## 1
Amino acid sequence: GAVVSQHPSWVICKSGTSVKIECRSLDFQATTMFWYRQFPKQSLMLMATSNEGSKATYEQGVEKDKFLINHASLTLSTLTVTSAHPEDSSFYICSANPSGRRVYNEQFFGPGTRLTVL
Amino acid sequence: EDKVVQSPLSLVVHEGDTVTLNCSYEVTNFRSLLWYKQEKKAPTFLFMLTSSGIEKKSGRLSSILDKKELSSILNITATQTGDSAIYLCAAPRGNTPLVFGKGTRLSVIA
């Protein structure tokens, strides 16, 4: 159990376009999901916490107008990279905890989305 | 500032060797420490440690937490080429999501 999927698994886009990445919890409900970004040879950096039915909480230095997060249901969170630039090219990973479990428990990660902006 | 520090950053060993990966942490309201293995995609969960001195074991992998030293180690015995990966250590800061270390890149050569 506790499977998280992401779509697409990879995407290539032109500079200036917007890209939407979906994160779904397949067999559990998640009131909270997390979005991470990982640059090559670096660790995962938390970007934002996505809360179902309310606004996302962004980490310091992450532009909320550039990285739009929508958590419209208990099983789906989306991250939209608006007006993407080459420096946004990265590996984006989401994770989720089943509702009711504390966030310091094991988190379940999606397979990641590799974004390349030309 | 909350942080998780791993060492070494990279390691190359031969098949059959035993390796020890280190993780130290400074986090507010410590609750748990987690180890993940990352190959080409997203991290896969290995262990969650909450109590000091209790070893968790899964096959050739084992891990233990030392709350006095604010550290943890991950041991891999009889390494295989399939163990080649980045091993990540992480801790939630209080009741918020994970702070990750930079990882240890392990390469096991035949």
## 2
Amino acid sequence: GQQVMQIPQYQHVQEGEDFTTYCNSSTTLSNIQWYKQRPGGHPVFLIQLVKSGEVKKQKRLTFQFGEAKKNSSLHITATQTTDVGTYFCAGQGQTGANNLFFGTGTRLTVIP
Amino acid sequence: GAVVSQHPSRVICKSGTSVKIECRSLDFQATTMFWYRQFPKQSLMLMATSNEGSKATYEQGVEKDKFLINHASLTLSTLTVTSAHPEDSSFYICSARQTFNQPQHFGDGTRLSIL
């Protein structure tokens, strides 16, 4: 079955340092979405990438979708304490699959 | 926009009780709603996909008679955990999507504790 893996599982950074999480799918995706879940909260939609090689930016966050549409990354520049949380990628299959396959998540801790 | 309301936020009840969780899309019509279960520090595990007006599609290993899902309208889906036992204690989250290939918007989740 389809699997979406994320690395690293955990990341501790000093405030101001950069952070990157990587997402890899076992199959080609039609699109990939990124969500952020704060401790005790629910996942909040961040962005959706659809095109091969697509790059999107949201302030300090940069999202990339691989050329083969099987991998993606989220990069945060100069982390802040408000960036704390778990970042999940979620891929949608190409075969008309109805649901998303969530990645294993990367838990980010930012040390002030 | 894209607000999803989930109720209740927390339930504590005795073993054997049935618990009903509601998921509503407040400002859009959701053709599809999803129910997830999340264990502490783990990813979201999809339990079932629910399309308005039709039977839910359950993921492998999820008992449909245990977790009853109803999606009677384009803005409401319910999950009923029947005869709940302590092993059913978990964080249950619903999400709603307007159309295919659009992002899912999540409810606040329900923390279920069975004593």
